[in-house]
Amino acid sequence: MAPRKNAKGGGGHSSSSSSSGGSGSGSPSTGSSGSSSSPGARREAKHGGHKNGRKGGISGGSFFTWFMVVALLGVWTSVAVVWFDLVDYEEVLGKLGVYDADGDGDFDVDDAKVLLGLKERATSERTFPPEEAEAPAEQQGHAAEGPEVQSVEDEVKEQTESLLQGSAHTGHDLQLEAEGPQPEVEDFLTVTDRDDRFEALEPGTVPEETEDSYHMEEPASQDHPNDVEELMNEQENSEEVTQQDYDEPVYEHSENEGIELSDNAIEDSSIISEEINHPSVEEQQDTPPVKKKKPKLLNKFDKTIKAELDAAEKLRKRGKIEEAVNAFEELVRKYPQSPRARYGKAQCEDDLAEKRRSNEVLRRAIESYQEAANLPDAPTDLVKLSLKRRSERQQFLGHMRGSLLTLQRLVQLFPSDTTLKNDLGVGYLLMGDNDSAKKVYEEVLNVTPNDGFAKVHYGFILKAQNKIAESIPYLKEGIESGDPGTDDGRFYFHLGDAMQRVGNKEAYKWYELGHKRGHFASVWQRSLYNVNGLKAQPWWTPRETGYTELVKSLERNWKLIRDEGLTVMDKAKGLFLPEDENLREKGDWSQFTLWQQGRKNENACKGAPKTCALLEKFSETTGCRRGQIKYSIMHPGTHVWPHTGPTNCRLRMHLGLVIPKEGCKIRCANETRTWEEGKVLIFDDSFEHEVWQDASSFRLIFIVDVWHPELTPQQRRSLPAI
Questions:
Q1: What are phi and psi of 628, to 5 degrees?
Q2: More confident: 502 or 141
Q3: Running DSSP on this structure, what letter comes out for residue 581?
Q4: What sign for the dihedral angle of Cα 214, 220, 223, 225?
Q5: Counting C-beta atoms within 10 Å of the first and last residue's C-beta, which end of the chain has fewer, N or C?
Q6: pLDDT at position 154, please?
C-alpha cells in the first residue's frame, strides 16, 4: 500500500536516506528500487510531476510567481486609472449630489443620516433688512495675491489677513509698502489711494507718516488666499490683502493719486520682494483645532446644474484660468440667476487679474462679486464671502470709502457677526474716522468682552489719543488672547512703547517676545519693513558704509551748510516745521526738509541753494526713496522718546552744525554719543534711539539718509518709497 499512497500523494518519505539517488519514494513502474532515476523522471520531478506520469499541484515557487504577476498588474492598473484620469470622480460625486439632504452641495455622512431619519433636515434661510443699503457699483481695481484653486465640493477657503497684518506684514511684488508699528522721527508710510496697484511701484511714493497712523500694507506673500472655509471661520487679516501701518489713525492720499500706468508696466519691471517678519508657526499659541463648518454655496437651482459648475471649477482648479473664465461666463449667460456661476466668474476674474496684472480685470472681479451677492436666493454664505472679498479688493486698491460701504452692508446683513464689525472698525480707521471705529469696538466689547481683535484695536485707538496708560491693558490682553489678527509686531511695538512711556519695565519683555515670535530682528532693532540679510549694527563708520566721499564733502563744507540753515531760520518763521509724530515727551523740535523719498523740494532748496547743489552728485542720498535730507533744530528742555525707524534699508547721517558744549546726546541701542560741529555721526535708525537736549541753547544738525550699502542697484530702483 505504500507505493500506492506515494503515487497518489506525490511520493511518501521512507526511512531511507536521500542518497539512494531517488527522491526518497518508491515507484512500482520503475522496476528498480535502488538505481538512479532516469533523465525523464528527473525532468518530471523537476517540474512537479510524478514518475508514474501523473501531474501534481503547482509547486510553492510557481504559485508565488503568479501571485506577484497578478499583484503587479493590479498596481499598474491603479496607477493608470489615476495617471490618465480614466475615472472622473468629480462627476461621480456630482451625481451623488441628487441625494444631498442637508444643503451643503454634496452627498456625505450627514446626508445619509438625514435620509435614514437619524437627523433632521437642516434649513437655513437668510433674512435681509427691508431696505438693503447697496454699495455703489464702482469700478475699482483689486489685487489678487496668487490664485488658489477650488472645487465646488470642497470650496477653497478664503483666508484673508487682518487689515492690520499684512499683507500686512509683508514685501510683495505687487505691493505698495507700508510701515510697521514703530514711530519714526523722520517719516512713516501711508498707503496710497490709487488704481495702479498692479501696474507700478515706482511712482508709489507716499507722504511722511506720524507715529499712530493707521494704514494698509501689502503682505509679503503673493499667494492670494481665495479660500472660503477659512474666510468663513477666521478673523480676516488683511496682510492683507493688506497689511496695516499704525502711526496716527489718518489715511493720507498719495501725491500720485489718480495716476495709472498701463497694465503691462509691472511685467516689464523687476520688483524686489521684501520680507516682513512673521511669527513662526511653532511660536503661535497652541489652540485645539476647531472643525470648520463647510460653507453652503449652492441654492436649489444651482444643485441642478452642479455638474456644469463642477466642470468649470475643475478648469480653475487646474490653473486653466482663461478657459475657466469662458466657462463661467457661458454659465452666467445660460443661467443669469445662478449665484454660484456668477461667484465662480468673479473668482476666475480675481485669479486672471493676478496673472495679467490688470486693473481692468480686477475691476470686473469686484463688480462680479457684488452682482453675485445681489442675486435673489443667493445662499447666505455666498453673500458673505462675495462681499468680504469685494471689500478686501477695494482696500487693497486704496478705495477705502467704497470698502467701507461694503463693510457697512455686511454688518447690516449679518448684525450678529462680530468679526464683520471688527472689519468695519478697521474700515473706519483706514478712513481716519477714529471716533466711529472706537464706537464699533466698544459695541463689540460690550457683546464679547474677550474679543482679542477688538481689544488690540481699541487699545491702539486709545494710544493714538495719547491715553497711554489706558491703552496698555487692552493691548496686553488682546495679544495674550491669541485671537487671529492679534499676534502682530505692531501691537507688540505699541504695547512696549506705551509701557516705556509710563516707566513700566516690562516693555522689553514684550519686545523680547515679539522678537522670539519673529516680528522683530532683535530687541533693539524693531523695524518691520525689512530686506533680509542686510548687515545690522547700531553705529557705523564712514569706511563701513562705503560713502566716504559723501562724508568728506559734508565735513569739508559744514560751515556753508550751517550758514544756509541759519539764514533760513532768520529769514522767516514757519519754514522749520514742528515735529508732529508724537515722539517728544517735552520740548521744541522742528525740521526743514530739502529732499523726501528721493524727491527734491524745489522751494526749500531756494533757501539753501549751495547745500542742495553740493548734494546733487550723491545719488546714494538724493536718490534714497526711503529717507530724507533736512535740517533739524532742537531747543533746550527737549526729550525724544525711545523709538525706531520703519525700515532697515537706510542709514542715517547726522552732521553737527551748532552744538552746545554740554547737554546734548543721542543713544542708539545701548551706546550713547554726542555730536561735534563739522563731524558726521552714522547710525542705523531701525535700532531704538533716544535724544536729550538739556543745554542752554539750541542744537542744529543736518540729517542725511542714505541707502543701506548692501542693497543692490536693482533693489534701490525697485523698493517702494517710504
A1: -140, 165
A2: 502
A3: S
A4: negative
A5: N
A6: 41
Number of Cβ within a 10 Å radius of residue 559:
11
Above 90 in pLDDT, residue 195?
no
At residue 708, the 3 state secondary structure works out as coil
Report the distance separating Cα 321 and Cα 351, nearest Å.
7
Name the residue among 577, 591, 596, 583 with its Cα closest to residue 650: 596
Q: At what angle do helices 89-96 and 306-317 cross, to 10 degrees?
A: 150
| Cα–Cα distance measured from residue 635 to residue 685, given in angstroms and rounded to the nearest whole number | 21
Q: What is the pLDDT of residue 394?
A: 94
548-556 and 558-571 helices cross at what angle (nearest 10)? Answer: 60
CA distance 689 to 512: 17
Task: Report how far residue 712's alpha carbon sits from residue 450's, in angstroms, rounded to the nearest whole number.
Answer: 47
Residue pair 227/146 in contact (Cβ under 8 Å)? The answer is no
Angle at 323 between CA 266 and CA 394, to 5 degrees: 45
Lookup: cell for 145: 495675491
Which residues are bridge partners to 161 per DSSP? 237
pLDDT-derived band at 428, boundaries 50, 70, 90? very high
- How far is Cα 120 from Cα 97, in angstroms, rounded to an integer? 18
User: What is the rounded CA–CA span in Å between residue 329 and residue 477?
Assistant: 48
**CA 313 to centroid of chain Cα atoms:** 25
Residue 61: pLDDT band with limits 50, 70, 90: low
- The total of other beta-carbon atoms located within 10 Å of residue 373's CB is 28
CB 597 within 8 A of CB 625: yes
Secondary structure of residue 664 in the 3-state scheme: strand
8 Å CB contact between 147 and 176:
no
- Indicate the pairing of strand 584-586 with strand 699-707: unpaired
pLDDT tens digit sequence for 496-545 = 999 999 999 999 999 999 999 999 999 999 998 899 999 999 999 999 99
pLDDT at 40 over 60: no
User: Could you give the CA distance from residue 41 to residue 35 in angstroms, rounded to a whole number?
Assistant: 12
Give the DSSP per-residue string, 46-109.
HTTB-TTS-B-PPPHHHHHHHHHHHHHHHHHHHHHHHHTT-S-HHHHHHHHGGG--SSSSS--H
Which residues, 6+ apart, have CB-to-CB distance to 175 below 8 Å? 167, 197, 201, 217, 218, 219, 720
SS3 503: coil
Number of residues in the chain: 722
Confidence of residue 586 (pLDDT cuts 50, 70, 90): confident
Q: How confident is the model at residue 73 (pLDDT cuts 50, 70, 90)?
A: confident
The DSSP secondary structure of 582-606, one letter per residue, reads S-EEES-EEEEEEEETTEE-HHHHT
Helices 321-334 & 306-317, crossing angle to 10 degrees? 160
User: Angle CA(188)–CA(173)–CA(224) in degrees, nearest 5?
Assistant: 105
Q: What distances in angstroms separate CA 302 from CA 295, 339, 341, 368, 602, one per listed residue?
A: 14, 8, 8, 17, 62
Give CA separation, 125 vs 222, 377, 643, in Å. Answer: 36, 9, 52
- Work out the mean pLDDT of the chain and round it to a whole number: 74
Question: Is the Cβ–Cβ distance between 132 and 413 less than 8 Å?
Answer: yes
Cα within 13 Å of Cα(113), Cβ side: 9
Q: Provide the b/e sequence for 391-406 (b: ≥16 CB within 10 Å).
A: bbbbbbbbbbbbbbbb
Q: Between 345 and 10, whose confidence is greater?
A: 345
- What is the distance between the alpha carbons of residues 49 and 270, in angstroms, rounded to a whole number? 78
Q: Give pLDDT, residue 396.
A: 86
